[in-house]
Amino acid sequence: MSMLIVADDLSGAADCAIGFANAGRRTVVALGADEAVEAANDAAADRVAVIALDTDSRRLAPADAASRAAQAWRALGGTQGANASAGVGVGTSQRRLYKKIDSTLRGNWVAEVAALQPLAGLAIVAPAFPATGRTVRDGRVFVRGVPLGETETWQLEHAGKTADLQPMLEEAGLRTALFAVEPMRDLQPDLLAQALAEHARAGVQALIVDAQSEADLNLIARATLVLREVLHEAFFWVGSGGLARELAALPELFGNDAPAPVAPLRREGPILTLVGSLSAVSGAQCALLRERTGMAELVVPPAVLRNVESHPESAQWRAAIGAPLAAGSDLLVRIGRDDAFDPSEGAHLSTALAALVEPHVCHLAGLIATGGETARAMLSQAGIGSLELLSEVEPGVAVAQPSDDVRRLTVVTKAGAFGSDHALYGAWLHLRGLQEATRNGSQADSQRAAHASRAPETNSPLN
User: What angle is formed at CA 455 by the lines to CA 452 and CA 461, rounded to 5 degrees?
Assistant: First the structure.
């Protein structure tokens, strides 16, 4: 048995799939259909256990995003139709579906779930990710105790729209029900599975699961394994990285013969931290990274990136990025902000930033990319179509390397408004530790001293 994770952005695909790599399962993130098919062939040959496909659909029109999700499952799922007993019974060779959604409900997830449901059966919707402060109660998402609909992020992007799960799914035409885990915590997984199955038999198409803790998600994960045996209809999981981690921790999901991940390939050289997100979370992470490492920072103006091919300062910015990397120095590069900034131009700005960086990727040993659009743009520019997941720095901060094992580049991806203040610095320490593990102590000390002595910030190559 293998797993297909369908995600709408790259960092989400990685942070959802990393739990399986942590559990010792070989896991590949694919940026496109060709790479996903190659990974599926490896899965069929028992060389890959989990495929996470980034459909890059978060900013598409809902109908287009839905079409991409459905097409992915038709092409890679291995079974067709909601009445097919997809993967029923542990040990089958069928592929199971996990629709990854954002824990704060960004993107076109409702349209994507509605498109997948006729193909994949009952949707078990559990977006909670307690390790990152996201919980679900009474069908409502809470972010560190605050209802999602009352958060600043939701108000900025979805003012006037509901953030409650049930009306969102029902508006897409799905028959829904709420499923509270709390009153059933004392039940055995088989009894909980029977309760889940009753909803499916009653015609429910999307079952919304309340979860307050990792223990709640673990109980749901174990119950759904039993559900495969008691419900002779297809179903699929809909969630963030929280439920995925609990599923990954269950050895019986795959059996004992799932392929193990490969060993990391190490290379010495500079580390580039590339930040496309303008969230306050990313800002705090950048500040701590600069403070702790003393690395130089370049903040590229949006005006340059909007017209990167013709802007008169593009060549100077490209050279400014390349100079420290060619000299072996680590560098922080991020997108600035101006009065004309529009969130909808994020993908364009990320692609332009990646174009400035691409000539210098050859110097890198490590890349830390914050924001799914930024990570995808950079990897695409560098000709990297898939990543093999290795480990994680903290929840949601995944470490990977190109699947072709030719480029000795270690990649860390992280969603923009995600992670602790320590996340970027922790990622840098992790990558630096991989390099230092290959050296003797005196060389490592010299490297640390060199980083500590670097200038703290450079805002413009034109100063």
Answer: 150
Rounded distance, CA 123 to CA 46, Å?
27
Which amino acid is present at 448?
R
Q: Residue with structure tokens 């969230």?
A: 279
Amino acid, single-letter form, for residue 443: Q
Q: Name which of 145, 66, 151 is nearest 105 in CA terms.
A: 151
* Phi–psi pair at 313, nearest 5 degrees: -95, 0
| Exposure letters 262-285 (e unless 16+ CB within 10 A, then b) | eeebebebbbbbbbbbbbebbebb
Task: Give 37's contacts (C-beta < 8 A, 6+ positions apart).
Answer: 75, 76
Q: Map tokens 């969102």 to a residue.
A: 168
Q: How far apart are CA 440 and CA 119, in angstroms?
A: 55
* CA distances, 189 to each of 104, 217, 231, 241, 254 (Å): 28, 12, 14, 21, 18
Rg (CA), the chain: 22
Residue 57 half-sphere exposure, CB side, CA atoms within 13 Å? 30
Pinpoint the alpha helices (H) of 202-345: 214-230, 241-248, 280-293, 302-306, 314-326
Biggest CA-to-CA distance, the chain? 68
Give the number of residues written for the chain: 463
Query: Distance (Å, rounded) from C-alpha 145 to C-alpha 134?
Result: 8
Distance between CA atoms of 179 and 216, rounded to whole angstroms? 12
List all residues 6 or more positions away from 24 whose beta carbon is below 8 Å from its beta carbon.
258, 260, 261
- Tens-digit pLDDT string for the chain (463 aa): 789 999 999 988 999 999 999 998 899 999 988 888 887 777 676 788 899 999 999 989 999 999 999 999 999 985 544 444 343 333 334 789 999 999 999 999 999 999 999 999 999 999 999 988 999 999 999 999 999 999 987 887 788 899 999 999 999 999 999 999 888 888 888 899 999 999 999 999 999 999 999 999 999 999 999 998 887 779 999 999 999 999 999 988 887 666 666 666 677 899 999 998 877 888 899 999 999 999 999 999 999 999 999 999 999 999 999 999 999 999 999 998 888 877 678 889 999 999 999 999 999 999 999 888 899 999 999 999 999 999 889 888 899 999 876 667 999 998 877 778 899 999 999 998 876 655 544 344 444 444 443 444 456 665 5
pTM of the predicted protein model: 0.85
